[in-house]
Amino acid sequence: MSKRKIHITDVILRDAHQSLIATRMRTEDILPACEWLDQAGYWSLECWGGATFDACVRFLKEDPWARLRQLKKALPNTRLQMLLRGQNLLGYRHYADDVVEAFCQKAADNGIDVFRIFDAMNDVRNLETSIKAVKKAGKHAQGTLCYTISPVHGTQTFLDQAKTMADMGVDSIAIKDMAGLLTPQATFDLVSALKKNLELPVFLHSHYTSGMATMCHWAALDAGVDHLDTALSAFAGGTSHPPTESVVAALHDAGYETGLDLALLEQANNHFRNVRKKYHQFESEYNGVDTAVLMSQVPGGMMSNLANQLKEQGALDKIRDVFIEIPKVRADLGYPPLVTPTSQLVGAQAVANVLTGKRYETITNEVKKYLQGWYGQAPGEINQELQRRAVGNEELIDERPANLLPNEFHKLKSQIGDLAESEEDVLTFAMFPDQARTYLEQRQAGTLQPEPLEPLPSAGQSGNISTEFKITVHGESYDVHVTGASPTSETKRRFYMTIDGVPEEIALESLGEFQKGSGPGKREKVTNEGQVTTTMPGNIVDVLVKEGDDVAAGEPVLVIEAMKMETEIKAPTSGKVAAVHIQKGDRVTPGDVLVEIG
Ligand code: MN
């Protein structure tokens, strides 16, 4: 009897570093491992997606399209796979069909072979255009089930969705368990149902967050799964995926064939183990097994981002409250699965609810659009009172949202103008307008510079004699030896030291953030009701008033972006604008006086 073949997709170049080090791995750290990866025998390597694209443009100052072309060249024998957000492509909004078509074609031209296509609402209408475009480009279109648990989800709902996707012509079905919520029994039931009712290969993508993913793999094998997603062990476990080498060893011992060479995997893995150290500043505190996910349903990628963002805002202590608030917001929104962009949408609203201390006092623009129907149909009932409050008298939509979007490629092309040297550049601009413009301007000026990396913690200590010194205070002398410090990215930094041999810790509050913005220095704090402030820390994306304007209470005066979500800040009172203390791009924190109405 021939051995049953189980195909492996390694997510080391996309999801693994997205889950564990905030998607910061650079092309220079990927290319040296490509020869081993390409010979190892993978069915595919996942290497591209929204977060990798975003991080390239925003932080690494790399052209994501150039990365793709380099990978294609370095991995000639292995399928390259990407994760595509259906009508959202790699962005956070729905695009018109002409942009979706152009994007799929260009991704195929530049090297993508397999498109894993999902919609955050599991609204299949949002997959139509991209599935067609991928088929037209002659590539593999994979229909995705965003797995979640709720009173309105079950094996039958997912099976119905898979059947609809099969009718739409997909080449395979993926179960995308972004938060690690699958249990072995649920996996067995779902994979069995898919294999019994459909003729398509089934892929399982299950995050290790809750610690159950390898058990789910085994249950899936018994139910007839064809493909498993794993990550090389250097970036496996925690909010990432089951370790490739362990899964391969277990499969081989049980008589399955993977076609993978463990010796080559080990060489590639040793490379990535060293690489990970370089990115230590991005390691999340929440990258181990965290069973709290069974309550909060927060997916891995979102968990580390949420932790990083709360840390930036000096509110990391609120993370558990946010995890408790998330399921409540999700229920109000009709139980969407939590995956980009709904995870950001629900996450940012939950953070707003917790930080303001009052639920829905601030409603982000995206939540308003969601409640209006601009993301598609919610899986369950929406909280009608919240919907009325957010949407007001504006119209609700119930058709495929992109039906209402006129073609926009040419408009985007003229907006970015000469900065775009190719159609790919226009698409980059379409995905992340502000970040892409900055990137393209810097590219033209020759000033692209990746964000700096902090040196390894040990490098500062060994061979640096200035960590030991003597101080004299009030006539008393002390021998001080500084032994370590927390990352500079924290607003409150801790320094560890021994004083006369006794271990001590001091915490310093940084004033640095006040110097970073383009503002005149530290902002005044709110003392009267005509002063406009923000309820969430964030960046100013738009100022809607100028000095001398008349505004009415409740009228929006500025727009801030926090956690990738935009929120309007409204005038607390009516009157004339006496002063505007901010401009686009400024970083602001709650309590700062931003605009004065007098
Ligand atoms: Mn994932």
Provide a compact summary of the structure.
The chain is an alpha/beta fold and 598 residues long. The chain is 38% helix and 18% strand.
Q: Could you explain how this protein is built, in words?
A:
The chain contains 23 helices and 20 strands. By secondary structure, the chain is of the alpha/beta class. The chain has an eight-stranded parallel beta barrel, surrounded by six helices. Strands 9-10-11-12 form a four-stranded antiparallel sheet. Strands 13-20-18-15 form a four-stranded antiparallel sheet, with no helix packed on it. Helix 6 packs parallel to helix 7 (128-136) and helix 20 (423-431) packs across helix 21 (433-445). It is globular, with a radius of gyration of 25 Å. The protein starts with 6 loop residues before the first strand and ends with a strand. Bound molecules: manganese (II) ion (MN).
